[in-house]
Design brief:
Elements (H helix, E strand, L loop, with lengths): L2 H7 L7 E5 L5 H8 L3 E5 L10 H7 L4 E6 L9 H11 L2 E4 L7 H17 L17 E4 L5 H13 L25 H9 E4 L7 H12 L10
Parallel strand pairs: 1-2, 1-3, 3-4
Antiparallel strand pairs: 5-6
InterPro entries: DegT/StrS_aminotransferase (IPR000653), PyrdxlP-dep_Trfase (IPR015424), PyrdxlP-dep_Trfase_major (IPR015421), PyrdxlP-dep_Trfase_small (IPR015422)
Pfam family, one: DegT_DnrJ_EryC1
Protein name: DegT/DnrJ/EryC1/StrS aminotransferase
């Protein structure tokens, strides 16, 4: 069942509000709108990039009926924490289904992620945690936010390493969903994050190239004061 069907099956409709993340794809907010409800954006946990439980609690209003938990980059959302908020506030906690990869593929991605964790310097590596499947290996580039992250990405690509910005524009900054809301961790993540490859098919020499390219640039960027 898609997100729209899940929301409609839960009875979400016109006049309701549903809490969703702004960091990620627009489809979840679009699904809420298609039911006639209004998406309400809450900030993310900077370690997991999933909805932050206290931030969700803070934006619950009289029309709020549900929250959609979205797992991000293979990192599970804090469903237990969200359900505690749901029980206290009388909200449904709905979970957006995540595509499942074969066990062997996930284990190889975890092995590649562990290799990068041990060897990368100059970028902040992701927090692993139980259950992380590393659909994307997302690092933080230090410095002055988006300009330095984008310069770092160009330099890494020039060294023959694929990389990409996982979330270019938060949903609350997109036409049709623009909101004047304060989401500092969402904004910071959109400005600093960069995804590096950890595909199961990558050879050891390709992993070494990723490390070499990133570490050659690590000392060039310094945090802003």
């Amino acid at each position: 069942m898609g997100t729209v069907g899940m929301l409609r099956a839960a009875g979400v409709g016109l006049g309701d509000e549903v809490i969703v993340p702004a960091f990620g794809n627009v489809e979840v907010a679009e699904a809420v709108s298609l039911t006639g409800a209004m998406p309400v954006f809450a900030d993310i946990d900077p370690a997991t990039y999933c909805l932050d439980v206290p931030a969700v609690d803070a934006v619950v209003g009289p029309r709020t009926v549900a929250v959609v938990a979205v797992h991000r980059f293979g990192q599970p959302a804090d469903l237990a924490g969200l359900r505690r908020v749901g029980q206290r506030q009388g909200l449904l906690v709905l979970e957006q289904s995540e595509s499942k990869a074969p066990y062997d593929e996930v284990e190889q991605r975890r092995a590649h992620a562990a290799y990068l964790d041990r060897r990368l310097s100059g970028v902040r590596t992701p927090e692993g945690g139980i259950g992380h499947t590393y659909q994307q290996y997302v690092v933080r580039v230090p410095g002055n936010g988006r300009p330095d992250r984008d310069a770092f990405a160009r330099a890494v690509r020039a060294r023959g390493v694929e990389c990409w910005v996982p979330v270019k524009t938060p949903v609350h900054r997109m036409p049709g969903f623009r909101r004047d809301v304060y989401l500092p961790e969402t904004e910071r993540a959109a400005d600093e994050t960069l995804a590096l490859p950890v595909d199961a098919a990558l050879a050891k020499r390709e992993m070494h190239r990723i490390v070499s390219a990133c570490n050659a640039l690590g000392g060039l960027l310094q945090p802003a004061f």
